[in-house]
């Protein structure tokens, strides 16, 4: 399975690459850097590019399948004292290969690497087949580094898969039973209410309260309620989003039922997938077009997070090994930071580099007309989150003011979609949001939308002028070449709309920062032979099952890897990086995590 993943990964990376040179394999390349094409082909043929490959019969080690006699020869020529195991490493194996290949043609270098005798002809023919395939799909000279990142990442994530998340099976059984009883009780209350009685009275047969067709017919045809969302066939929708937006007290049963059902489904997934009380989710690096990861069986990256009830119920099933504690270390604002590194907008760089600045607070102040904005006030903090998730990030990734206006006013501000009346909307120190906005001359969603249109214009023409120029430039480059380049060595191609072009670069590169750090953390834990283990990765965070005596040292090591070693390795990172950490007390579930102060 892992071999298949790596093969698919290699093909995926290379298919989105472009290399304009052609080669005469019988002559040395004009540019020594072009030997990287041969390195990749030889290592793929020798070991599928696996640094841990080992041939016990020949004692051949690493991606280049280096034998003891070659190590001795290399040491004699270089005056070094390497051991065989030192070459179970891409960089060292590449260093040796390039030493012996320099000045030779691809054919001679490959044959010399194999040895001597008639088998070298067969060896060269096989390597040449791989070379031709690489050339046919337009080899990108950065693909080696990109592939190495994904290859090493696959191995590190595989270790986390093997370690897995421990689950509390007793908790799962009891919690599912409890939720089912609560669902049944909620159903009885619903059926005793006037809404259900009116519904039952409108039809001849017995009502099936779980039939979307019957509910939709009653809501929209019998009661004449205006649908806020339509299905593909043009009928009023009754999915969770539509019922939430209708905001009818009589439909609260469905919201509760959907929440309980979601929790039961997640817990059932845990129960089904666990083996001896351990979940071993599969992490994939060859599926997402952004070269981010995905997960399945179960999808630990899809555990509900925004709803506190669901988060606590589902994460309550995840527990550490006995005597251990869970810790989650998460990159802080990594996508925005990487965005700044890529587009180099001076204002964005200032925002992410200066801890005293507050981009989302500044936007909340402007959007909601709060001159004395204070994020320590709960209502203001909520509006700051609204500005962050309802305007700044959507604008960065291609949304526009009209969509943002609905999200900000209705979803976050709890204001109706038409004209506003005093007393409506979320509560604020300045009065209800409607009162505050009316006092500032904005009396409806349409007026708020026009207000946001002016803010959007200023956002791109003044505040982030360079970012706007970059977006336009990237779109033109994509239209010309059919791909966009990530600073981590990958190219995203295929059919894309503008928001894909703007978002794939920071999203993919931000994940690669996490993946690089995950690889280094895994190597650190193995090298130190710790009792602490990596058990998973979720978006921009890594999860560890820590021995309490090691927790502080592990946090310090990961912080050093993520905030110091990573920028040193990738010089294109030009802004400070930071991480947040949360932990649980010994033997406590993941739901009980709290902020870690190292």
What does this structure look like?
The chain has 4 domains: 121 residues, Orthogonal Bundle (Lysozyme), CATH 1.10.530.10; 114 residues, Taq DNA Polymerase, Chain T, domain 4 (Up-down Bundle), CATH 1.20.1060; 141 residues, Alpha-Beta Plaits; 118 residues, no CATH class. It starts with a helix and ends with a strand. Strands 13-14-8-15-16 form a 5-stranded antiparallel sheet. A 3-stranded antiparallel sheet has the order 4-3-7. Strands 1-2 form a two-stranded antiparallel ribbon. The chain is an alpha+beta fold and 598 residues long. The radius of gyration is 29 Å and the shape is globular. β1 and β2 form a beta hairpin. It contains 23 helices and 16 strands.
Q: Could you outline the blueprint of secondary structure elements for this entry?
A:
Layout: H1 2-15, H2 35-47, E1 54-55, E2 60-61, H3 68-78, H4 90-101, H5 106-114, H6 119-136, H7 143-163, E3 165-167, H8 169-191, H9 194-201, H10 212-222, H11 240-246, H12 252-273, E4 278-279, E5 282-284, E6 294-296, H13 308-315, E7 318-319, E8 325-331, H14 334-343, H15 346-353, H16 359-367, H17 378-396, H18 401-412, E9 427-428, E10 431-432, H19 433-439, H20 445-463, H21 465-481, E11 483-485, E12 491-493, H22 498-528, E13 533-538, E14 541-546, H23 551-569, E15 579-583, E16 594-595
Antiparallel strand pairs: 1-2, 3-4, 3-7, 5-6, 8-14, 8-15, 9-10, 11-12, 13-14, 15-16
Helix pairs in contact: 1-7, 2-6, 5-6, 7-22, 8-12, 12-13, 14-15, 14-22, 16-17, 17-18, 18-20, 20-21, 22-23
